[in-house]
């Protein structure tokens, strides 16, 4: 298990919803603290009231205008029908996790809208039509409890994996309710562990004990809205009886409990996320003695234990005290954990992997007898199998060379892993791999969702403003004319060390490529395609390089006459939504359509909204003078020119998004409306940060987006 804050956001679903409804005096104080530009007044703070009547009335009015316009286009029905056919297809790969002798899968289709948790044996899973044992219907549970439950995963006790802590979200929020579940009995455990809705982190110690970080009541959350106190709870105890075992600082982003399996031991670990990218790790001894801090750099991901070695991914240079050897950012290293537990000394510190130029670790998986590295080498995936016997050794796994690969299932109790392979034009294929015996079998694949017979993929590089070479992919029909008339969609993210790889999308293929569109994927800085340094090049006040990279790719494809500004659109979500907002403001001449999904747009108040304070390490703080000065220059909400000539923009967000506040999109739309600028707006009442809580909603959202793009770039 990788132990860093990015992982915990996913594993623990650790986010909380907090509507911003201020008393008048506080409201005035807040408004006065914000700079007033000469061109744009501040949008009203009632837009921050997530479910406030005035805000929702405005949202519903915007929704109606957009829905009336887009659904009246005959292409909407076409895109919706094809989207529903794809997302509800019966021949999808039922991706699963193999643990305790069973393959577990969460299945959604038109009959299981919210989804069915189910399992089958490994032998049955390899068949074309496996026989599944249904475990829990989220649809039935929602009906019986009159809730809009969204399944957010399980955390199961290792070895047999039958006893699990199951997370349920109301409408797709990151905040979850956690209940104890028994796979073998197909039921919730009577009087079992239960944690009310919150941004909770939880880990098993053993069958009768768990460690919990949650909302313990008054003053128990950080400024980012995450817990900073860990308590231990025994079976049969009320939550109020839990014993405190660790406390971080209120200024931390959050504190999380984790269990590391080490031989026959379960080590309790506390992770203090001091910032989004910096963490301190503490061992919590079972005898109740004081926590002991591990001697690790702050920017590191703890991958787990393999053959007694604690394996670490470094995100910074590291020269451990008392050791002559130095390691680089991006290296994978290990040391003897048993010796450290006994002596608190690092012994047998070794380099596992050092990335070559334009290469980085994409994922690390630990199995019973092997360590598996998925590497990105110039944004191309390769898988390597490592072993340890006093020294590290490795071989390259002989996978077919055909696109991106990812390990979709691995655990420390087995040497069976699943590897998924896909490309822009090749549908997903799932391989069962016995990595101890190097036995590779393709067990599942999906049929083509669109006609890719005449589609080709090319990789180019654009020169950014400071000379950095920025790779990007172009997916196009082989016979297009290079005359600037091709409708083109450029996608990017550019943040949080997230890597964008070639992937297969039936929705993109059917509703864009088949319609004559060109797709461009830009691997701009801020991502993780070339390791930690690629990401850190655009942190805080250096962020303009990320925007320059996006602009450089757009200019390069126009220079190649693949498209023109009139036919070029861009799309991005979350951090990519901020990117879209900045592109809209900085280079309105370069694009003709912008899709801005679940975005950050008010960069002077983002740190006060929901989980925003946790991202200060990425964006900088509006409370620090030089960082605020930079944020003032790039904040989309604060840089709208009332008389500007802007492209059409479509905002997509969700009322239930308790990660990035919907007020970001609301504020931008409010100001654009005030100044008469063209925009579309769609706020899904459910859906969380994905803006779609189920497959039907996803098909509808993408149908609206492709209709908008078609109107602006194809007509």
UniProtKB/TrEMBL annotation:
GO MF, any single term: serine-type endopeptidase activity
Protein's GO biological process: proteolysis
Coiled coil spans: none
GO cellular component: cytosol
Pfam families listed in its UniProt record: Peptidase_S9, Peptidase_S9_N
Source superkingdom: Bacteria
Peptidase S9 prolyl oligopeptidase catalytic domain sequence ranges: 512-713
Keywords, comma-separated and alphabetical: Hydrolase, Protease, Serine protease
Domain Peptidase S9A N-terminal stretches: 39-437
PANTHER family assigned: PROLYL ENDOPEPTIDASE (PTHR42881)
Protein name: Prolyl oligopeptidase
Protein's organism: Paraglaciecola psychrophila 170
């Amino acid at each position: 298990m990788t132990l860093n804050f990015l992982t915990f956001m996913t594993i623990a679903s650790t986010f909380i919803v907090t509507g911003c409804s201020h008393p008048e005096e506080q409201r005035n104080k807040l408004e006065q603290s914000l700079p007033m530009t000469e061109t744009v007044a501040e949008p009203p703070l009632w837009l921050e009231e997530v479910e406030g009547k005035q805000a929702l009335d405005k949202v519903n009015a915007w929704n109606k205008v957009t829905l009336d316009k887009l659904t009246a286009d005959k292409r909407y029905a076409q895109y919706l029908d094809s989207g529903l056919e794809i997302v509800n297809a019966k021949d999808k790969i039922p991706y699963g996790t193999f643990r305790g002798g069973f393959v577990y899968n969460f299945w959604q289709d038109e009959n299981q809208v919210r989804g069915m948790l189910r399992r089958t044996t490994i032998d049955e899973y390899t068949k074309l039509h496996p026989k599944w044992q249904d475990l829990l219907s989220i649809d039935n549970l929602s009906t019986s409890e009159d809730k809009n439950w969204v399944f957010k995963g399980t955390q199961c006790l290792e070895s047999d994996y039958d006893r699990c802590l199951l997370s349920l979200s109301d409408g797709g929020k990151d905040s979850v309710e956690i209940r104890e579940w028994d796979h073998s009995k197909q039921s919730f455990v009577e009087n079992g562990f239960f944690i009310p809705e919150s941004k909770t982190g939880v880990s098993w110690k053993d069958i009768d004990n768990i460690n919990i970080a949650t909302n313990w009541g008054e003053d128990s959350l950080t400024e980012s809205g995450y817990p900073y106190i860990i308590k231990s709870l025994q079976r049969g105890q009320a939550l109020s009886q839990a014993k405190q075992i660790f406390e971080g600082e209120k200024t931390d982003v959050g504190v999380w409990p984790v269990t590391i399996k080490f031989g026959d031991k379960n080590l309790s670990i506390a992770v203090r996320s001091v910032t989004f990218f910096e963490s301190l790790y503490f061992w919590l001894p079972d005898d109740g003695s004081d926590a002991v801090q591990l001697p690790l750099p702050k920017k590191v991901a703890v991958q787990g234990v393999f053959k007694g070695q604690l394996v670490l991914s470094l995100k910074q240079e590291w020269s451990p005290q008392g050791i002559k050897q130095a390691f680089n950012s991006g290296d994978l290293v290990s040391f003897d954990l048993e010796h450290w537990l006994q002596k608190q000394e690092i012994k047998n510190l070794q380099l596992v992997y050092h990335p070559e130029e334009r290469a980085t670790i994409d994922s690390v998986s630990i199995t019973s007898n092997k360590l598996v590295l998925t590497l990105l080498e110039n944004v191309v995936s390769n898988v390597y199998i490592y072993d340890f016997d006093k020294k590290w050794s490795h071989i390259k796994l002989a996978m077919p060379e055909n696109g991106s690969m990812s390990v979709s299932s691995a655990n420390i109790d087995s040497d069976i892993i699943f590897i998924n392979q896909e490309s822009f034009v090749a549908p997903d294929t799932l391989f069962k791999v016995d990595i101890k015996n190097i036995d590779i079998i393709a067990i599942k694949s999906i049929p083509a969702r669109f006609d890719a017979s005449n589609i080709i993929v090319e990789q180019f590089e654009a020169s950014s403003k400071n000379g950095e070479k920025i790779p990007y992919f172009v997916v196009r029909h082989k016979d297009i004319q290079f005359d600037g008339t091709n409708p083109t969609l450029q996608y990017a993210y550019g943040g949080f060390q997230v890597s964008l790889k070639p992937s297969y999308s039936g929705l993109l293929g059917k509703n864009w490529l088949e319609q004559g569109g060109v797709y461009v994927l830009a691997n701009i800085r801020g991502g993780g395609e070339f390791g930690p340094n690629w990401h850190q090049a655009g942190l805080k006040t250096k962020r303009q390089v990320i925007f320059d990279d996006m602009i450089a790719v757009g200019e390069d494809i126009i220079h190649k006459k693949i498209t023109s500004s009139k036919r070029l659109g861009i799309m991005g979500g979350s951090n990519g939504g901020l990117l879209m907002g900045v592109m809209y403001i900085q280079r309105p001449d370069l694009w003709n359509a912008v899709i801005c999904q679940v975005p950050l747009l008010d960069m002077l108040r983002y740190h006060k909204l929901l989980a925003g304070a946790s991202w200060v390490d990425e964006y900088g703080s509006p409370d620090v003078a030089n960082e605020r000065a930079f944020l003032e220059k790039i904040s989309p909400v604060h840089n709208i020119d009332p008389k500007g000539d802007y492209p059409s923009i479509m905002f997509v967000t969700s009322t239930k998004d308790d990660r990035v506040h919907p007020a970001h999109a609301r504020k931008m739309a409010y100001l654009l409306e005030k100044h008469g600028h063209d925009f579309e707006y769609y706020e899904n009442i459910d859906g969380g940060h994905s803006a779609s809580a189920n497959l039907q909603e996803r098909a509808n959202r993408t149908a609206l987006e492709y209709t908008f793009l078609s109107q602006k770039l194809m007509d």
